[in-house]
Amino acid sequence: MRPDARVQAAADCLDRVLAGAPAEKALTAWARGARYAGSKDRAAVRDHVYDALRQKRLCAHLGGGETGRALMLGLIRSRGEAPEAFFTGERHAPAGLNAAEQQPPPPPPDAGFAELPDWLLPGLEARYGAALAPQLAALRQRAPVFLRVNGRKATRDTAIGHLAEDSIVAQPCAASGMALRVETGARAIARSRAFLAGMVELQDFSSQSAMERIPLYNGMKILDYCAGGGGKTLALAGRVEADFFAHDANPARMHDLPPRAARAGVEVRCLDASELARWAPYDLVLCDVPCSGSGTWRRDPDAKWRFTPERLAELTRTQDRILEAAAPMVAPRGLLVYATCSLLPDENEARVAQFCARRPGWRVAFSHQFPLSEGGDGFFVAQLERYAET
Q1: In the chain, what are the domain boundaries?
Q2: In Å, how far are 73, 75, 277 from 79, measured between CA atoms?
Q3: What is 145-203's CATH number?
Q4: Cα-Cα-Cα-Cα dihedral of 53, 127, 208, 362, to 10°?
């Protein structure tokens, strides 16, 4: 595909997103109907769509409207490129610019655009103050790719060497013992020998850092209560010899966990709800709860435009229910670790404070908000200690 045809394809996908389709579904539908598109074409169209959604307000301002065509016109202008080179009307390219589109847009406001729904801003400003600005700036950018080195299979240096054999360039992160930042070759990771051999796993830097701060000792019983694919279980398993258990309210989400654990050289017992009590109490229960995902909106930018106050209220009720269900399974002096990939205080500090208010035998041993501006995703973690029977 020519560059101008890729722009038209992205505009078509954006029209589907603006009509209510999730971005991934819109891209998949386009790809199924575009058999002529190669892997580089699909990647380029995907990048166009996600770049436009990350900064939808700026693109709409520069493009003169909120249609797929206008967003792509705005995206091209935001990059300092000439729209006339893409809007040519030739073959599969977008139609040429009309008289209104040829007019230069007004300059954007000095403060730029907050690329978030307006209703979220008061709470974020109250929580972060001046520290919010760099996080809003980070939301406009593509997210970096990070890997976690599996200490059971490789050192950081050997993992870097094996990745290089597949033309993947990765650099160590100074603030984390086992994190690598991928500089080039990210799309080849899943096919690389280092990945297939279990030396590395895809995991964001902030998520890794949060797991590294959990105190562990050999022989623990550890339950990942909202396990999903088990990434955080595997991160903990890379640090300690322990008995690992995994559970998810939707067991289908754990489908990939057994093969991932086998690749990593870790034994994890997957439990359904009826089996949890049999193995209780646990020295550590990890609750990586369903949340807004606001700390990951760089990776899933259309999600932020679909997020509503009603959905936030629904999520906070779910988060409270999960904490209440998990707490009785924690052994005395054990830890209940609450984690979200969220920037929103309603999902983070507020949930922890209300839990401790309901349960006086618990206290916050440690908590930390990882801001988006530090390179990794926005992520919150709190370690809640059960210091007395309740």
Answers
A1: 3-92, 145-203, 206-386
A2: 10, 6, 56
A3: 3.30.70.1170
A4: -140
DSSP β-bridge partners for residue 182? 145, 170
Sheet of 169-172: strand order equals 169-172, 179-184, 145-149, 200-202
Catalytic-role residue among 13, 173, 226, 341 = 341
pTM, whole model, 2 decimals? 0.92
At 187, list the tokens.
């799309």
Residue-wise pLDDT tens digits, 167-182: 999 999 987 889 999 9
Amino acid at 161: G
Nearby residues of 295 by Cβ (< 8 Å), 6 or more positions away: 206, 340, 341, 342, 343, 370, 372, 377, 378, 379, 380
pLDDT < 70 stretches in the chain:
111, 374, 390
Give the single-character DSSP code of 177: S
CA distance 9 to 327: 50
State yes or no: is 341 an active-site residue.
yes
d(CA 126, CA 358): 25
Q: Is the domain 206-386 a CATH 3.40.50.150 member?
A: yes
